[in-house]
Amino acid sequence: MSVDSRSPIRSLRRSPKEPERPDYSEPDFSSWAARLDDYTPAAHAAPATTAAATTPAAVVAPVAVVAPVVEVAPTAQALDDRPSLEEVLEKLLSFDGALCVAVVDSETGMILGSAGSGVEIDLAAAGASVILRARLASTRALGTNEKIDDVLISLTSQVQIIHPLPSNPSIFTYLIGDKAKSSLAMARYKATEADPLIRL
Predict the structure, then answer these.
(1) Least enclosed by CB within 10 Å: which of 80, 111, 175, 198?
(2) In Å, how far are 1, 12, 24, 96, 168 from 191, measured between CA atoms?
């Protein structure tokens, strides 16, 4: 073994290994161009086949569940136990001095039902319709929210009451009584009592 190789000072003086120089030569892009030609975007790619797609349709399709048919019993209609219009009108005449009564449509003057005698009720009902329409028109013209309860007409021998129905003010009860025999308070009470009983 030589003395030079064993000397530590000699080994320190050796120059370190020079680093490799970078390669500045032009790279080869031909392989990358070939890859770009073969590239297909993901949006245009064919959909990947999944296990569900290859599964038979009988397995993939959901099973239709048929709900049992429940028959609904028809609802029973409430029976209308109110008396007929003729019975209500006959009941209205059950006070002293009552002559006749009618249920009238004020818009047409037509009688919907009547009972009693002693007065030409068709002509009287037509005149009462004109009176009620005029009274309703004047109430609207005044701009008030008042409702007409009764229109009282006092003649020499008769008392007449025009009573609009609360459910339909264009329909009214027309009650005529003998002034000498009938009580005005009873006549008004009878007209009001018939309101919930009249069905049209």
Answers:
(1) 80
(2) 148, 136, 118, 14, 15
Separation of first and last alpha carbons in the chain = 139
The domain defined by 98-195 carries CATH number 3.30.450.30? yes
Over its length of 200 residues, how does the chain's per-residue pLDDT go in tens digits?
555 555 555 555 555 566 666 666 666 656 655 666 665 666 555 555 554 445 555 555 566 666 666 666 565 555 556 678 888 888 888 888 889 999 999 888 899 999 888 888 999 999 999 999 999 888 889 888 888 899 998 889 989 999 999 888 889 999 999 988 888 888 888 888 888 888 76
pTM for the predicted model, two decimal places = 0.57
Domain ranges of the chain: 98-195
Rounded to an integer, what distance in angstroms lies between the CA atom of residue 84 and that of residue 194? 11
The contacts of residue 169 (CB under 8 Å, 6+ apart) are: 136, 147, 148
**Based on the number of CB atoms within 10 Å of its own CB, is 165 exposed (0-12), middle (13-18) or buried (19 or more)?**
middle
Q: Which of 80, 87, 150, 82 is nearest to 113 (CA)?
A: 87
